[in-house]
Amino acid sequence: MKRATPFVLALAVFVLVVIGVRRYLTGDEVVIEEQASAAPDEVELVEPAAPEELEAPAPEPAGVGREQVALEPALAPAEEAERTATLVVIARWDDDGTPAVSMGVSTYPSTRANAFLHRDRAITGPDGRATFVVRAPERLGAYLDQGESEFVELAPGDVRELVLTAERWAVTRGRVVDREGNPQADAEIWVSAGFNYTYGSVVARTRGDGRFEVPIGAANYIGARKVGHVPSHLRHPNAAKGEELELVLPLRGPAGRVVGVVRGTDGAPIANALVHIGTMRGHVVELEDGAQGTQAPGLRARSADSGRYAVDSVEPGRVTLRARAANYAVLALEIDVEPDRVTEVDIVLTRGITARGTVREPGGAPIEGVFVGYGDYGAFDSGRTLTAADGAYELSGGDPSGWTIVARMQGLGAAETTLAGAPGAVVEWHPVLDPGRAIHGVVRDTDGVPLEHMRVTARSARWAGGVPLQAVTASDGTFRITNAEDKVYALTVGERGTVFAIHEVGGVRPSSAPITIVIPTGARPSAYVKGRLVLPSGVRASLTAFLVGGDRGPFIHFDADTGEFADGPWPPGDYRLWIMSDDYPRTSLANFSLAVGETRDLGTLELVPTGKLVIVAILPAGGHAGGATVEVRDRQGDQAHWGRVESDAEAEIDLAPGSYVVRVSTARELAAHTVVEVASGATTRATLELVGSPRLAVALDFEGEELATLTLTVFDADGWPVELLRAGAVKTGRALGFPLTAGSYRVEAVAGDGRRGNASVQVTAGASPATVVLELR
After folding, report:
1. Domain 611-692 is of which CATH architecture?
2. Which of 67, 104, 319, 417 would bridge with 145, disulfide CB 3.0–4.6 Å?
């Protein structure tokens, strides 16, 4: 059985959280369209060919090359001066202030309709500068691939300089090879923006021996491409600060080329149309050396004045071609591409419909700054704009046969409609935003002092993902959560800018009456942790902390040379420190408590070589239990491994040395759990015979309608945790079921608000489940 790679899964979750839900975690507004650091979901893995020649483009000097999508008519020279502004971005390294050369810089016009189509991108030159000319007035977001971001207000005629600090994190050296392993000169090295594998820049080219050297950040991906070859998969180096890495980026065989002309239904060519070929988003892949990588997203180009376009380095096979242009609906086609061949595909775009209207409050007052848009944020088939001071908006490019758009604003709610019309038609929609039911009140400390910048989050029992309802307290401690439904919610409160919840309140319904939330003395973050991590040779890893029974904390950076780390402030409580790595099993390194204001030195934490656990699962009638589920927990009940026996064979699992409880199950049978000891460098074998599976039903009884969070653990007669469940928004009377073998067990439940309950129960073989009622007091 192949061991899962928890670091990759954790990293994927972390990237999604940072990009899509970062404002939920920090308490900022959820409308990420207005945030400079939320990079538009673009792909820059190919430069378009010269418009008429359809030949590979010549290398452009640093600071000049960019893809600029001009989807509006060019301005006359006099108009250019009156209606444009210039922004010069200066990137400097954080450690010595020298120019950050060949750094990707992006700008994003936050007030423009379909803003991501008008974004601009450049590479800094030898002086660390990149220059952008934009239409004004504009609120322009500028951000570095590795470093700071900032919004700048630009008026017509402005010439502004903006200094941004680039983070010098690590250095990646390596070489680019073809599928046969031959070094490739003049290949392009592509580095993504931070926390985003779909958007980046070509920052360097390989030398004659195929080698390269580029700086890289903690959250960047890196890949290679060359005309005539399928681009490499992307790697996330996961570098520690100061680390120097060596990578090989293999290109993936002969590629095809797609060329053609983009026209309207009237036959006229369309200039500046965007053409995207391939996947919209990458996915995790296993590389030839066994490491984890990410499939490179599709390739993109734009059409010339003649409507002609060319996309090189397309992976052979059946792929999706998407195209769009200003005022035209998005088109998607399936095409077949052959290696070392040119495929001609002419594209015909249909005029889209335009939505126009005014967004108002229920009383009729117009609302400025409302998001009006369609599609997933940053996707190729999406668009957005913001309402003006008079509440007016205009958005074009909708599908004439049916176009769903939404208007929304944090705190005021959302409205949605589906429009249709003849190609080129203007359709009016005047949405009214009503905040609806609300949960409101004030957050104070025990002395009655109002607390500002506290994140109040509401979840219901039926909440199943996405962004929960949320508000941030004002200077007087008040908050208002809108768009609530008529049902029970559980509230958690945390400091804005941190991920930990420090207080919980259950059983809250929307009401006209305010509620008062009192934060206990000492509950706010005030503690710090430090230590030193020693890794085995060749192991790269990250540290993260979990608040026992609560939230996961931040990823903790440690020095690549010394292994030293420090982090905080954290709220007081019980914690577990985990190692997350592709090279080492998921392991709890330390269990500790933090008191108010404490700085805890965890000392030296050393990872020792792993051991191997071999599990054989036997069916009642004999034979191996192929497809059985294997679950391994440590002494604290946390899951160290979960997987399946993929065939009638033994399951081999690498584990850190220590004691574990192992359970193997199928859909109809369940093995009695067993406790094993795993030693460094040794192999431990465990044979489990599957038997019938009686069940344990646990009913919860507590005052109030709902608990914000609950941790429930089932211990066997020897005190080993054989089941552990963490749940949110738990209603009173809810029954929880667990398949267990016959024996004596103790069940313990701990609510986030401190209430506890425990009971002992005897589980016997038979069809009827054993039942126990836990009273939480």
Report:
1. Sandwich (2.60)
2. 104
